[in-house]
Design brief:
Number of domains: 1
Distance between the termini: 21 Å
Protein name: DUF2283 domain-containing protein
Pfam families: DUF2283 (PF10049)
Strand order of the largest sheet: 1-2-5-4-3
Largest sheet: 5 strands, antiparallel
Organism: Methylobacterium terricola
């Protein structure tokens, strides 16, 4: 499978829970097998193959995410 095909096969979804103030972004429908906190309040989840399945941002409304910098750091940590 080429990288373009693999990327196209993934459909990212995002959900914000107002009760818990958590933003969840899933990049695959695979079950989560492990998670790790890469920065305080930012958790990366992995599937059984060790591929990033999603990202959870706790306390999302209190954070000012600088998209370019924070997303680059998350990608490097994953």
């Amino acid at each position: 499978m080429s990288p373009k095909t693999a990327t196209a096969a993934r459909a990212a979804t995002a959900r914000y829970d107002t009760a818990t103030d958590m933003l969840s972004v899933r990049v695959t429908a695979a079950a989560v097998a492990a998670s790790r906190e890469v920065r305080p309040g930012i958790v990366v989840t992995d599937d059984e193959a060790g591929t990033v399945a999603g990202i959870e941002i706790r306390g999302a409304s209190d954070r000012r995410l600088a998209a370019d910098q924070d997303l680059r750091r998350l990608a490097e940590a994953a």
